[in-house]
Design brief:
With about 400 residues, the chain is α/β, with parallel strands linked by helices. It has three domains: about 70 residues, Arc Repressor Mutant, subunit A (Orthogonal Bundle), CATH 1.10.10; about 130 residues, Nucleotidyltransferase, domain 5; about 160 residues, Nucleotidyltransferase, domain 5 (2-Layer Sandwich), CATH 3.30.420.40. Strand 4 and strand 5 form a beta hairpin. The protein is globular.
């Protein structure tokens, strides 16, 4: 039974607020030393120490002993319950589903093609059924599912969970997607831009570890980017930050799906590249074009290199605006490696201030799984926060 709320301003309400600050800090940052918790929350070390003891006794957190700067330190992390998290990664033409345990070990995964005119209701129905089938396939029950992340190839409003820009994903506009999927699976649901999930994963376990400012650019049928500033994702107040695919390169260029002319996507996105090979047998999907490039086809390699040059021009503008430590190139087209990356670097060297001399431009450090990895991390954090919240509310 939930504990009655303490009167505002009382000692009990203050202590409860402090407990929640510590849980929120651990949910956001993962394992921390007690002294780091004090720095992040603004609480005194003595207060943190007392609350840590209380939360450990309630099995909300785990404590271990180690060292920090040569001194003995108590490290604190949220207790992990056994269970399963799921990532649903939608792109323009496919859905990737992954189940993982609480240690983020992959248990099952599926790849499902999508029709060009797919709508949210039909696809969320199918996704929920597939999750149920995958759980059954690993001998688990739906009750063991802790949380789900819905990763989308378009920007998401962080306050509403709805698409931040109408028209970029027809059939999905104006819908509370988290509530819709939660009604189907009855677990916490996170809805996030795939590129934001990608940069989070790269900054925690991939090619951007240790970077103060990192940018992840995903290149597939669409082009997007995610930004991390001092370890925190920057989405903008309405979720529209990082839309590198809609940087204008040619004001007289082709009309983009966003309604403007000459966006980066119109010359370097998967749709634009496939149009160059329209009518050529065997090249109907982006994976076909990549396979041709990897086999040495000169035309395919040239198309991808030209895309890299255009992407580099846009990345140079990002470099001038944000001065990042690293730009990670991911997404389906990044599978071509230096065929794409070398022209990106060359264009940045020519167009960025001082040639972006200290900027690293690299491929994904997560074998092309940055966005799925980020989605699983987000689901796990949501599960941890939900479990901690239930214990806190129960007293």
């Amino acid at each position: 039974m939930a504990r009655p709320s303490a009167p505002p301003g009382s000692q009990a309400s203050l202590r409860e607020a402090n407990r929640q600050r510590i849980v929120d800090a651990l949910t956001t940052h993962g394992s921390l030393a007690q002294i780091e918790l004090a720095d992040i929350t603004g609480l005194s070390p003595a207060t943190v120490s007392n609350i840590v003891r209380e939360l450990a006794a309630a099995n909300i957190i785990d404590t271990t002993f180690g060292s920090r700067s040569g001194r003995r330190a108590v490290h604190v992390s949220l207790s992990r319950q056994d269970g399963i998290v799921a990532a649903l990664g939608f792109s323009a033409r496919s859905l990737d589903l992954v189940l993982a345990d609480s240690a983020l070990t992959t248990l099952a995964e599926r790849h499902v093609p999508l029709a060009a005119d797919h709508r949210y209701d039909r696809e969320l129905d199918r996704a929920a059924l597939l999750v149920g089938d995958m759980l059954e396939g690993v001998g688990a029950q739906l009750s063991e599912l802790l949380a789900v992340t819905l990763s989308l190839p378009v920007p998401v409003d962080p306050d509403t969970g709805r698409l931040a820009v109408p028209g970029l994903m027809p059939g999905w506009d104006g819908v509370d997607l988290a509530a819709s999927l939660r009604a189907r699976l009855d677990v916490p649901v996170i809805v996030e831009h795939g590129a934001t999930l990608g940069v989070l994963a790269e900054s925690r376990a991939g090619a951007a570890v240790g970077a103060r400012v990192a940018v992840y650019v995903t290149v597939g049928h669409s082009i997007g980017s995610g930004i991390v500033l001092d370890g925190v994702p920057f989405r903008g107040p309405r979720g529209r930050a990082g839309q590198i695919g809609h940087v204008t390169l040619d004001e007289q260029g082709a009309i983009c799906r966003c309604g403007n002319r000459g966006c980066l996507e119109t010359v370097a996105g998967g749709r634009a590249l496939l149009e160059l090979f329209s009518g050529i047998p065997g090249i109907t999907r982006l994976s076909d074009l990549i396979a041709e490039a990897e086999s040495g086809d000169a035309g395919a390699r040239r198309a991808i290199a030209d895309a890299g040059k255009h992407i580099g021009v846009a990345v140079a503008s990002v470099a001038n605006l944000l001065d990042p430590d690293v730009v990670v190139i991911g997404g389906e087209l990044a599978r071509t490696g230096e065929t794409l990356l070398a022209p990106v670097r060359h264009a940045v060297e020519r167009a960025a201030l001082d040639g972006a001399r200290d900027l690293q431009i690299v491929g994904s450090g997560l074998d092309g799984r940055a966005e799925i990895t980020g989605a699983l991390l987000a689901a796990l954090h949501a599960a941890d926060a939900s479990a901690a919240g239930r214990v806190l509310s129960a007293g």
